[in-house]
Structure formats: C-alpha cells, structure tokens
Amino acid sequence: MEDSRVVPVTLTVNGKAIAREVEPRTLLVHFLRDDAGLTGTHVGCDTSQCGVCTVLLNGEAVKSCTVLAVQADGADVLTIEGMEEEILHPVQQGFWEKHGLQCGFCTPGAMLTASYLLSTHPHPSEQEIRESLDGLLCRCTGYETIVRSVQRAQEIMDERRESADRETRAI
Amino acid sequence: MYTAPFDYRRAHDTQEVVTWLQEDPDNTKIIAGGHSLLPLMKLRLASVARLVDISQVAELQGIREDMGGLRIGAFTRHAQLAKDPAVREAAPLLASAAAVIGDMQVRNRGTIGGSLCHADPAADLPAALLALNAELVIAGPGTERRESLDAFFLAPFITTLAADEVLTAIVVPRMVPGAKSTYLKRPHPASGYPVIGVAAWVSVSGGRVEDCRIALTGIGPVPFRAARSEQVLTGRAFSREAIAEAAREAAGSGTLEDDEDGYKSQLCQVYVSRALGDIAQGAG
Questions:
Q1: pLDDT at residue A4, as a whole number
Q2: Residue closest to B53 by CA, chosen among B8, B110, B115
C-alpha cells in the first residue's frame, strides 16, 4: 500500500541477520516466507488456532501468524529450516523414525512445538506431550504417531547427551 | 491475511503511551501480546489507525512484592504468571488459571493486562483475579488511579478504561495463609475458551469456613463473583451439604443471558459444586 509507511525490521533468522523495510502490518510469517524466502513455515488457519505456523521467537514457541514482524524486531527466530545442524535434530529424527507425519502440512509447526516442549521439559510425561500439542491441529488426525515421535525425540536427546558425556570423559 | 494498514509506534515509557493515546484516542490502540487484537484486526472486525506497542516499556513488566501482595506489570505474559515462583507462592490460584489459558503458544505471547483490557467475557484470568480481590493501577493524562477489578467490567469487551488511559499494573493481595484454591474450567472443545470457569478459594479454621471467594467467567456477559454462594459458605462447616447449597446460589449471583432452558444455571451449579468439592478434598 503506497499510503502506508514502511518501518525497518532486523531479525536473526536461523542465525542469519535479515534486515528489511516492511509495512507495519506485515506478519512474522509473511516476513519469513516472503522476505526471508523461508517457505518451510506454513500458514494454516491464519486465525491463531492451528499452530502450523509455530516458530521459536527468542527460544519460545509462538504462532507466527499472530505476531507482527515489527513486534519481533531484534529477535532471534528459529524456523524449520534452521533445525538441522550437520545431522538431523533429535525431533526430526524422532518424526522420521516414528512416522510422525501424514500429509506433512503441520509438520514444521509440530516439530518446533515439540522442540520447545523438550527444551523446557526434558522428560515430559505422555500427558504433558499431549497437552503441549493442544496448540497444534493435525488435520490428518495423526496425533498418535506425533506423540510417539516426541517420545522418541526425547530418547534420542538423552542418547546423544550420554554419548557426548562419554566422549568428554574419554578426553 | 493482512490487517488494514496502520501506523506503528513503539513506546518506551508509560507517559509516552498516554501522550500518543491522547493525540487520537478513538483511533489509537495499545498492542501488548496482540493475541486478542491481531486476530480481530486480521478479520477486519477492528480497525485501528495507530498501534502503540508497549512491549519495550520496562515499567509495565515484572512481578514484585508490594505491601504484602504482588504488583504484576500489565505486560506480564501468561506463561510467566504460570511459572513465576512468587505468584505460585502468594497467589497459586492465579498461576493455575494462567496455566490453562488457550494453548502453550498463546500463553507465550498473551499478557494479563491485554486479557483484562480486551474484556472478552470468556477470558480465564478475570475469574481468578476477581476471586483474589485484585486492584488495577491505571495511568491517564497526568493522573494515576486505582480501581477494584469488581467495578472494571461493564459489558462484553467494555471496561471503565478510558480511551486515553493505560493499565499499568495489577495488584494482587496475598492469599490467606492455609487457604486452598482451584480454577476449574470447562473448555469449549473447539476454541479452548471456557464455557464456564470457576475460580475459588476457601480458608477453613476449626472445621468451619472462615473466609472464601468464588468468581465465575465465560458464562455471563461479564465475569462475576458468586457473592451469594460465598455468604452461604462463610461460617458454616465445609460439608457436602454446605457446598451443595452454595452451588445452588451461584447462578443467582450474576447475570446470565439466553438461559431460558436453564443450561447455564445448571453449569454454574455443577461447576461451583465441583470446584468447591475439589478444594474440600484437597485436590485444588
């Protein structure tokens, strides 16, 4: 819109600084998809219900369709594209092994929701996993395998921690 | 989905917020977590010429001890309320209500001040804060006033907050030592909003109810205290009979709309009874 002023916004997305001039009404999800070119973050309901657009904003799971890019100015954002480092993130590995997806549309949001849960509750009960997924709608209704995937991700995290400890002790 | 275009300003202190509100009170809106306002703006149900972002106003943040109670900055997010050690210790009822708002992602963004000022009749926090006898600290042009939450809600989405005022803090008295509390909600299966939410605390001494407070949300056009239920309980033995009698008085304590079939009155009775029962059994 020509009549609307643009404002400068700088975000660190997956470790990389991205500076743009955007209209204030630009949503974080649009900034990520259209300005940063990261289309792994999906737009589902666009009404803050489905959680498919979940990303980590300064380490916290948020629905990026309900955050303005200007509100996130200066923040660190992690999207699905930034999860993998050298090897698959434990959550990605868990979803891979336990088939935690059907059509895959909600999967980016599901994985970031799960990684947030495991960062705040390293050993969640099944009930806690289910409660944490309250903000995620899988329209294939594939929740059982998503829950199993999160449980598997937690095991993988423990396994990797243990093997890192062993290596440290070996040195 | 895009909102209509608007001007965006980021405030750095409360005075700045008030000044910008004063310039054009009818077309300026404060944005805190944005989890009520942005969905409305996206659906074009709300149109705003200028948004004032209060996320960088340090005065509106943080939770601190205040005259034996808590002073909670208006820009405190639900997730913070739910896990804050001081809140859990001094006002566990508030922490337990905050823990069941919306979903995890919503709790990471939504704020206590935003929830109160938006005044959605189906918000969770008003019940807990009414039961806790909370007081609001409100800044306006050149003034600061205090108002009991009891008087704040006028109608759905309408409060006593003037267009050039900003809620700065919520003062929550410390709960009576030994009091037991609970927040019991029947979430709507689709939206998660309470069809009814009951916040209650009871302090029992020598087998009798020394003091109690019960408040309901979601069920009426505004949240309300079940004052009649409180009267029934106070001074009585905390027995099954007293709970049943108190629960019957809950619906009559407030205003229910569209209750011709008695469904809402029934919900009030059942949920007040269950909430008090949970407290009596120590499950609260």
A1: 55
A2: B8
